Amino acid sequence: MRLLRRLALVLCVQAAIAPHAAAQDYPDRPVRLVVGFSPGGGSDLVARILAKALGKTLGQAVVVENRPGAGGMIATRAVAAEKPDGYTLLLGSAAAFVINPYLRDDVGYDPVHDFTPVGAVSRFDYVLLGRPGLPAATLADLLAHARAHPGELTIGSAGVGSNTHLVALAFLARGGIELRHVPYKGTAGALNDLLGGNIDLLFDSVPTVMQQVKARAAVSFATTGAAREATLPAVPTFAQAGMDGFEASNWLAVFGPRGLPAAVVERLNAGMARALRDPELLASFEQSGNIALGGSPADLAALVARETRQYKTLINATGVRLD
User: Fold this and answer.
1) In whole angstroms, what is the distance from residue 223 CA to residue 185 CA?
2) Sequence-ordered list of residues with C-beta below 8 angstroms from that of 137, at least 6 positions apart, any chain
3) 8 A C-beta contact, residue 223 and residue 127
4) pTM for this one?
5) Burial of residue 213 (number of CB atoms within 10 Å: 0-12, 13-18, 19+)
6) Residue 128 pLDDT exceeds 80
7) pLDDT at position 35, please?
8) From which residue to which does the signal peptide run (predicted)?
9) Which helix (H) or strand (E) holds 153?
10) What b/e string do you get for 100-109 counting C-beta neighbours within 10 Å, with b at 16 or more?
């Protein structure tokens, strides 16, 4: 009986020590960073910039794996079901964590309870574009024209319930104007139609339209950040253009499956903090219109909670659903 008790004690001690020892050795093989969008897009670009810098700080390769589909939901579901050992991580987006779960009932994951926050990576802002020849040169001109001609101007988006649609809805509410919504399957088609004069307005991300803005291929009314974009210094913010209190951005952050050991989270977060100070990463982010974030896992959890409240309020107020 005494021998059985000793054996049980040994097994308990070994069970307690094993995860700690594994965490101390972490990582001892390559780490997968899953992205819910296709190669070549904005999320993929950020993932590859981060993977290169994070691989150096962790001492192991970080391999980007693209699992596109359903606005990032396919990748998010897949990572939620992975073993929480730190070798499969998700580059999650605001769409997957604070928008889609409240627009539809079939996401297949709980954005809070099924994941372990690791750290925020980057954010990017939006710019409001107008078609060439639009009878408005400033935001004040645009608002005056829209109020004088309610429902005549059109505004495109990446689709019903997309980030760009919700930003547009917030803009309409804040500006007290009425526009006709034209949804697309992604902003690429919307941007082409805007440049061709087929729609009047579009919110698109700074990284996506930076070159068109610099070339003045469209009217650039304002950006949605708190400060002017370093890459677009000639474009005012909404506050500078006369609309105080209107800001919007999208962000990308690293999450692990639920139950990721605290020591692994700490190791990853410390590695990310060093990676996000890497001069090469910062230069690549600035060149592509992304802004490095960083911060603790608790900071990321707070970001998700704060934006969940904001988007749920907007979604409930507008009645937008994707079911």
Assistant:
1) 23
2) 219
3) yes
4) 0.84
5) buried
6) yes
7) 95
8) 1-23
9) none
10) bbbbeeebeb
Question: Measured in Å, how far apart are the chain's first and last C-alpha atoms?
Answer: 60
CA-CA distance, 202 to 158, in Å (whole number)?
9
Q: What share of the chain is helix, strand, coil (3-state, %, to 5)?
A: 45, 20, 35
Q: Please indicate whether the domains covering 31-124+249-318 and 125-241 agree at the CATH topology level.
A: yes
**Helix runs in 260-296, H state only:** 262-275, 279-288
The amino acid at 87 = Y
| pLDDT value of residue 185 | 84
Domain 31-124+249-318 architecture: 3-Layer(aba) Sandwich (3.40)
Task: Provide the β-strand partners of residue 253.
Answer: 92, 120
Q: Cβ(197)–Cβ(99) under 8 Å?
A: no
Q: Does domain 125-241 have CATH number 3.40.190.10?
A: yes
Cα gap 75→43, rounded to integer Å: 13
Domain ranges within the chain, ordered by starting residue = 31-124+249-318, 125-241
In the numeric block, the tokens 């001069």 are attached to: 279
